[in-house]
Amino acid sequence: MSATVLDLVHLAQSIKEWGRELGFQQVGIADVQLGEHERHLQRWLDAGYQGEMDYMAAHGSKRSHPEQLVLGTLRVVSLRMDYLPGDTRMSACLAQPETAYVSRYALGRDYHKLIRKRLQQLAERIQQAIGPFGHRAFVDSAPVLEKAIAEQAGLGWIGKNTLILNRKAGSWFFLGELFVDLALPVDAPHATEHCGRCTACLDICPTAAFVAPYVLDARRCISYLTIEYKGSIPVELRPLIGNRVFGCDDCQLVCPWNRFAKPTEQNDFQPRHGLDNAALSALFRWSEEEFLSRTEGSPLRRAGYERWLRNLAVGLGNAPSSIAVLEALAARRDDPSELVREHVRWALQRHGQA
Ligand code: SF4
Asked: What phi-psi label fits residue 321: left (phi over 0), alpha (psi between -120 and 50 degrees) or beta?
């Protein structure tokens, strides 16, 4: 297609309006040059901080070159959507060691589906305006450097906790990207960072997973250990995990910029099945059928039943001794999974039950 510069300026404005109408709080447009981020990623991979996440090293240079990943891409539209449910008693839940803490992004329906659908709707609106054009939507996809793109598109800066931070919205939001073959005018990259001398996220991290500001060793990160990691959780890290059974939000909870975070407008992201205030022992009693039906369409499915039980066993091992905790653990002493049995043994030992 051919379009004048004026057409493209007008189109870029329309894309931002349509994005907001579709429930995104902010929309920016980036070019495809991500050079410094590519070098940062390579240093991180060279240090082995990705753990078992081999997909982080896959795709070669395509990850930092959107135009190689989707041929013909000229710009990336980067969009963010708030996900924080209104009142989720986060700190209270973390302070109750017999209650399970589930990362706030995982309390409701899986965001991938919703955001991908909205990105497709955005693409359809563009197509209605200009006719067929090349595009592809991504949500939390392995081969896309989404935080680098968001920074490049002016949505925020990458904070010392490695998340995108926005001065008006904190960090409780999802990102999505629409790769397009349109030479849209780009937004100014977010050039300044506003972490300053703050180190709250680095200091609070329960497992000391930040080896330096902006550098996370995923192998120690509770989100990685409870969601991505398939094996036996290192024994020395288990006591530090506390009651966090799926992900961890500590580096966001403590971030001063999250005073400005807004509650989500999406019903899909509201807590389901009381997961924002459930007893570890009650969740540990879920059968596999209950797990599958209660996590249908939920990010919790990513861990799978076996790892869900593994994580809960760690939480129960860290909880104060009580009849409910000891009975829940004892009931799984002979679980069919050796992974679960091993974590149950560890938890029972913590309660003085050999
Ligand atoms: S807690 Fe402080 S250092 Fe960490 S991301 Fe937030 S502002 Fe930056």
From this structure: beta
Q: How many Å apart are CA 157 and CA 147, to the nearest integer?
A: 8
pLDDT at 88: 64
CA distance 347 to 28: 47
Q: What is the pLDDT of residues 226-255, one digit of tens each?
A: 999 999 999 999 999 999 999 999 999 999
* Per-residue pLDDT at 1 exceeds 70: no
Say yes or no: CB of residue 195 within 6 Å of ligand 1: yes
Contact (Cβ atoms closer than 8 angstroms) between residue 153 and residue 30: yes
How confident is the model over 61-89, as a mean pLDDT?
89
pLDDT for res 49: 82
Strand runs (DSSP E) across 209-273, as ranges?
210-212, 215-216, 244-246
What is the rounded CA–CA span in Å between residue 292 and residue 268?
Answer: 18
Pairing of strands 164-165, 26-30: unpaired
DSSP string, 304-346: HHHHHHHHHHHHHHHSPP-HHHHHHHHTTTT-S-HHHHHHHHH
Token pair of 147 as six digits: 């935080």
Is the Cβ atom of 244 under 6 angstroms away from ligand 1?
no
The CA 128 to ligand 1 mean position distance, Å, reads 42
**Helix or strand holding residue 13 (H, E):** helix 5-21
Instruction: Name the DSSP class of 279.
Output: B
Atom number, ligand 1, closest to the C-alpha of residue 159: 5
Rounded distance between C-alpha atoms, residue 318 and residue 226, angstroms: 15
Cα of 105 vs centre of ligand 1, distance in Å, is 19
Nearest residue CA, atom 7 of ligand 1?
A: 195
The pTM is what?
A: 0.93
Ligand 1 center from residue 196 Cα (angstroms): 8
Q: Report whether 26 contacts 154 (CB < 8 A).
A: no
Residue whose CA is at the smallest distance from ligand 1 atom 8 = 195
The residues near 341 (Cβ < 8 Å, ≥ 6 apart) are 332, 333, 334, 335
User: What are the respective helix, strand and coil percentages of the chain, to the nearest 5?
Assistant: 45, 10, 45
